[in-house]
Amino acid sequence: MNLSLKLRYASALAGFALAVSIPGVASAANFAGVWSFSGAMGNPAVETIAPVCVFRQSGNTLTGSCKGPAGIGSVTGGGVNGVRMTFRWNRIATSAAQRNGVITFFGVASASGIRGTWTDSYRPGGVGVFVGRRP
Question: The dihedral of CA 18, 20, 21, 25: what is its sign?
């Protein structure tokens, strides 16, 4: 085998090894299905959330819908990178106690579920924490 061919083979092998070692390239976590979330913003809490979301996952894209005690809406802008996930819940208020808004979730999956942070377009600058579990 000549030197040029050996170098190309070694480069291809190194590239493959790098690709499978990067989270999300080799395989993404499976977030499809039903998830129950609960979270609070502030201490004491100025806002709480408790939606149940149904996700569809196609590759690294999440879509679906969520329904909470005071809001419903679609999931958009959802993405998966290895064990990390993000999505936007376009919440439409179903009670006078809640407001319309976009809730954005940033989470990391583990054996016990998902943990992460969330923001609400109605409360600029506020950041809450959440946990998500499969019922």
Answer: positive
